[in-house]
Amino acid sequence: MRNPLSATAGLACALIVVLVSGIGVAAADEGNDAGYRWRNVEIVGGGYVPGVIFNESEPGLVYARTDIGGAYRLDTRSNRWIPLLDWVGTDEWGLTGVDSIATDPVDPDRVYVLAGTYTNSWDPNNGAILRSKTRGRTWERTPLPFKSGGNMPGRNQGERLVIDPNDHRILFLGTHSGNGLWKSTDYAQSWKRVTTFPAVGSYAPDPSDSSGYSSDPIGVVWTAFDKRTGRPGHATQTIYVGVADLGTSIYRSRDGGASWEALPGQPTSPAFMPHHGVLASNGILYITYNNNAGPYDGTLGDVWKYDTASGVWTKISPDPTSSTNRWFGYGGLTVDAQNPNVVMVSALNQWWPDAQIWRSTDAGATWKPIWEWGQYPTRVLHYTQDISGAPWLTFNASPSLPEVTPKLGWMIGDLKIDPFNSNHLLYGTGATLYGTDDLTNWDAGTPITITVRAQGLEETSVQDLISPPQGAPLLSALADIAGFRHDDLKIVPNKMYDNPVTGTTASLDFAELAPQRIVRVGSGGSNIGFSADGGATWSPGTSAGNGGVVALSADGTSAVWSPANATVSYSIDNGQTWTASGGVPAGARVGSDRVIPGRFYAYASGGFYVSADRGATFTTTGAAGLPSSAAKFKAVAGHPGEIWLSAGTDGLWRSRDAGVTFAKLANVQEANAIGFGMPKRKDGYPALYTSAKIGGIRGIFRSDDAGQRWIRINDDRHQYAYTGAAITGDPRVYGRAYVSTNGRGVIYGEPTDVKDRQE
After folding, report:
1. In this model, does residue 275 exceed pLDDT 90?
2. Per-residue pLDDT tens for 100-130?
3. Can you tell me the distance from the alpha carbon of 199 to that of 196, in angstroms, rounded to the nearest whole number?
4. 3-class DSSP state for residue 180?
5. Are residues 434 and 488 in the same domain?
6. Less packed terminus of the chain by CB within 10 Å, N or C?
């Protein structure tokens, strides 16, 4: 769950808003009206890919959905993924949570996205159906009268949004939150609830969760059409729908969705829910079952097939529930379109010693696992794994057998065989997208080769960014995968931060006068690390808390740490010992003066504080008029006592006297983050960069004259949803800005005629 910031029935609003996104691979690199080019810092992956969707009529057309980072289409020429939702702005950031994708089997240019990140209060907006006739280059939308949940429990199930393969005007939509099944007959422009559908999918992982995250009903999760029961231009008559209920959970219509019945004979004991349902061309319906929604949970399950001609159900689990030492259910499911007897399934949440994938060539009568036990603790692997595309996927681990690194993955909720190429398979994990091009070698007893297939698909949630004046140009603080030192923005780093290893890095700082000295804090392991060589190597400190904000003095000899919801502390021995700072509220945001070594600053609830003794004691500056809301501030290199404070909807503020007084900039309505970069002119004031609203427009802005005038340097095609966590300029490259996102990785922009020298 990474969060930056009432259901109804009847007709959904049919208001259509035209939206424009980037076009093709070149769009990420082309200039805008401000003369800027935008692209990703190369990390490759970094987040969960819960769905892969191949088009059934055009070879090579495939989409991927991410839980918070938008939708992608594969460019087969470059084998890179093209981001399709970078036009989404801050006010609608939830649209980058993709709950489902449908690609039209009749008109391959059409694609649809079910967008919306959370069904609870974390996302203030309802969901939407995004509609494209240009493969995602341009979009229209239909607002929905309820929320959707691309980052909710059960996001690995699906697909919720499905097109009738005979009459592509017709789509069915499975919803969360008890809103049932919906239908469109006009290419998703308008929707009506299917009032005859008898179930809503009432299962919730934790009904007592007051946040609404785990207590919201998972809903209607997949639809499968029997194409044989229709003809081109005429609606398919037999339809199967799976819902998130334990027990009776699959329903059938034989009249195009007018009436429904529970599918006779379906397994109801043990009580599992169907994660995926795939109807093979020979009329066999395959289903993977689990006792929970996933993607983090699920401890039991089975695989079944249903013969639609005879009505016979057969359990075909490769490792059935009745076996001993089971702690996982089933998630991903795929059937080879070239051979309906070839079926593959994945375990969902088989964390130890690794994930498991099975393949059957006889409709589930027998299975071959991708690995099996040898003489304990050894395992026999029927694959080789190449992670050169993202070498950090080792996670800095050195496990003992039977575990290995890298792992096949985890949270494997979806895997797909290319309908036009039986050797090509893609599957998503919690950190990347993997694939193979020699899948049928498995049948001959030859190991298959699994490689990283996430190039261009950047899905990290960025917490903080620094660009020191020496050494690597960028160091990042990331959720879930710690972060990286980037020596080259176009090359994937070999490893994430280690010694200590943290799951999430919350904050970074460097010593302005000794920039090789760096500190970082995080959570999910040892919580603080120090580096004396620009982040190439690290040494752990003693933990004083979890996450929060850390600051390093200008000379690197002292540090101040404000852990989340804890006492502010300082250290003068690289974090080996910590002492509580006096005079500063717990949880205050902290920072250092970039010129005066002993001086630190802090901000909390409208009060500004200063320390002159390396963080031992703070005193209030008495600054008046500051907003009481949360805010972020930074001090300016080369300008002692110069501070800029970004306060969200309370605007942007500046102090020139070490926080004694602040002046609010009248020309900035909102400012979520502030950063500094190389001045435009030698000896000039550093370039300012902010994620802000200026002149009534949200965007990324630069000022070359200390905030008197601003230029928007992004455009409507390059908005990247929420960009307010962190921003910084590059002190060595004029005009270059590094921008955080909540699910699209680190974005950087620079003038198309970028120069390293000032004018």
Report:
1. yes
2. 999 999 999 999 999 999 999 999 999 999 9
3. 9
4. coil
5. no
6. C
